[in-house]
């Protein structure tokens, strides 16, 4: 086994061990926060968790605030490393509604950044465009940026997409659809 494979295997093994230890508590926590309120460091290059559904949403993405969910979803779905060229990353699944068509398959990466760099969205602006029933459409504008160690190396042309957030039976909001070609009226 070559060195990168051994390193990746060691990282995966360490993550599995940490998950096993974290799950071996003495019972349900008395903390009022749901499991979805755990935190995690931002994804960086060669992230072995990028291709798994990933951890629960962070505390910064309060699932009862649909605009915050949209921002967190965009950060997770638009953060790409060179390693993501080999398999669609699934970092954003924690923010996806059960009926989201991309849930379980990941989002294909057609233009991975060079090794050592990460492409991530910056300057995210979220504006409500329409609402109907238990759905809200947000127009989200962000700037993809190449970063190294969380420092911007180069900003790209701003991008706009429409994200449909759907209220779940438990009162949380999750992303049902992300489509740059959606018209706000087409939220049915």
Task: Give the biggest sheet.
Answer: 6 strands, antiparallel
For this entry, what is the oligomeric state of its chains?
single chain
Structural class: alpha+beta
Q: How much beta, percentage-wise?
A: 25-35%
What is the radius of gyration?
A: 17 Å
Topology of this protein?
Layout: H1 3-22, H2 66-78, E1 80-81, E2 118-132, E3 135-148, E4 151-155, E5 159-167, E6 173-179
Antiparallel strand pairs: 1-2, 2-3, 3-4, 3-5, 5-6
Structure description:
The chain has 188 residues and is α+β, with helices and mostly antiparallel strands. 18% of the residues lie in helices and 28% in strands. It contains two helices and six strands, in the order ααββββββ. It has helices at 3-22, 66-78; strands at 80-81, 118-132, 135-148, 151-155, 159-167, 173-179. Strands 1, 2, 3, 4, 5 and 6 form a six-stranded antiparallel β-sheet that branches. The chain is globular and about 45 Å long. The relative contact order is 0.14. Residues 1-48 have low confidence and may be disordered.
């Amino acid at each position: 086994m070559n060195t990168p494979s051994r390193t990746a295997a060691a990282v995966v093994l360490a993550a599995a061990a940490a998950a096993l230890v974290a799950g071996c508590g003495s019972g349900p926590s008395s903390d009022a926060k749901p499991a979805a309120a755990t935190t995690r460091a931002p994804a960086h290059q060669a992230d072995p968790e990028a291709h798994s559904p990933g951890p629960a949403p962070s505390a910064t993405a309060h699932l009862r605030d649909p605009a915050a969910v949209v921002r967190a979803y965009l950060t997770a779905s638009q953060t790409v490393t060179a390693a993501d060229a080999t398999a669609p990353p699934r970092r954003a699944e924690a923010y996806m509604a059960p009926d989201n068509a991309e849930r379980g398959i990941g989002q294909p990466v057609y233009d991975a950044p060079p090794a050592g760099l990460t492409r991530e969205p910056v300057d995210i602006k979220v504006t409500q465009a329409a609402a109907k029933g238990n759905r809200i459409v947000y127009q989200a504008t962000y700037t993809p940026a190449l970063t190294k160690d969380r420092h911007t190396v180069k900003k790209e042309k701003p991008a706009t997409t429409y994200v449909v957030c759907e209220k779940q039976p438990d009162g949380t909001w999750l992303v049902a659809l992300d489509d740059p070609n959606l018209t706000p009226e087409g939220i049915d």
